[in-house]
Specification:
The protein is mainly alpha-helical. The chain has a domain of 131 residues. The chain is built from 10 helices and no strands. Helix 4 packs across helix 5. The protein is globular, with a radius of gyration of 22 Å. The termini are far apart. 19% of the residues are buried.
Length: 291
């Protein structure tokens, strides 16, 4: 296997070119973390429960078109590892003195591409970034406007009023993002920070979504309890991670254990609280779809 003295990545960097890493590796992407935390929890949680993706599917003309859009998106997603991993491996070999993995891509743009082509690639990168950012801003403002403001604060609000509230919330979220951006310096890279934030909430969210879709006995009190205890679990694991995990960035393990906590809590609380009627669950739960 390939050994390297590259400084990027800190502990476990010698494993960068190993496909399957042992469970006791100091690198955060061991086989157990990737299988349980990423493959079983964070990846399906992103595609099933991510509001920005769900909102795009809800904007299609029919259920058939929504299914086609998901399948086409999955097909495009298969190309992402090649677009991300291969340039990273090339940059890792060409520029061994970089301190952070996030520096590889901009360094390659600056050093390898001529000025015109570098500007074109950077413009494409910026366009993709803006597309993702506006999707999440739109999803966040929609959730807060429709599920909180309209439901609990102003139930009789007109569409025009809700539209203005949504725009105001979008502006507030942008300002919050500007002030919170320096927090990314606390992480080893942008990706690790992104995964950490997702692991706190997406494990519990995926547990209650999965039960809600597949198990007709799941109910609101169970989901609320599962979400609360799941987030408490993930936050606590991050707080005391040095005494539990071998690695400094246990995001994938945190996602797995918070998912299990939320799953078990939701099941227990749902069993001890009144169930929903079969009629109210028609076409919402897989086991009642044909009833």
């Amino acid at each position: 296997m390939i050994e390297t003295v590259n400084t990027i990545g800190g502990p476990g960097r010698k494993d960068f070119f190993h496909l399957i890493l042992p469970a006791d590796t100091p690198h955060p992407l061991s086989w157990s973390a990737v299988l349980f935390g990423l493959a079983f929890v964070l990846s399906p949680a992103y595609w099933i429960g991510n509001q920005a993706i769900v909102q795009r599917n809800l904007g299609t003309a029919s259920e058939r078109e929504a299914k086609k859009s998901v399948l086409f998106g999955c097909f495009l997603k298969l190309s992402i590892p090649f677009l991300v991993v291969i340039p990273g491996m090339v940059g890792f070999a060409l520029f061994p003195g970089l301190e952070k993995g996030d520096d590889i891509y901009p360094t390659m743009l600056r050093e390898l591409l001529p000025p015109g082509l570098a500007g074109l690639v950077f413009a494409g990168f910026l366009a993709a970034l803006m597309s993702s950012a506006d999707s999440y801003l739109n999803s966040a403002s929609t959730l807060w406007t429709m599920d909180i403001y309209k439901k609990y604060i102003y139930p009789n609000a007109s569409h025009q009023h809700l539209f203005k509230v949504g725009k105001l919330l979008t502006l507030i979220f942008i300002i919050m993002a500007v002030f919170l951006a320096p927090l990314t310096n606390r992480f080893s890279g942008v990706f690790s920070g992104f995964i950490m934030l997702l692991s706190i909430i997406q494990g519990p969210m995926f547990a209650i979504l999965l039960l809600g879709m597949l198990w007709k006995r799941a109910n609101g009190p169970g989901a609320s309890a599962g979400l609360i205890f799941g987030v408490i679990t993930s936050s606590t694991l991050y707080w005391i991670k040095q005494g539990i995990f071998r690695i400094d960035d246990p995001a994938l393990y945190v996602a797995w254990w918070s998912f299990l906590t939320a799953l078990i809590t939701t099941i227990i609380v749902s069993y001890f609280t009144p169930p929903k009627t079969t009629e109210s669950l028609r076409d919402l739960v897989y086991t009642t779809k044909s009833l």
